Amino acid sequence: MTVDVTVLRVFTDACGNFGNPLGVVDAATVAAGERQRVAAELGYSETIFIDVPNSGSTTAHARIFTPSTELPFAGHPTVGAAWWLAERGTPIRTLQVPAGIVQISYDDTLTVVRARAEWSPEFALHELDSVDELLAAEPDDYPDDAEHYLWAWLDRDGGHIRSRMFATDLGVPEDEATGSAAARLTDYLSRDLTITQGKGSQIYTTWNSEGWVLVAGRVVSDGTRQLD
Question: What is the per-residue pLDDT for 218?
Answer without folding.
Answer: 98
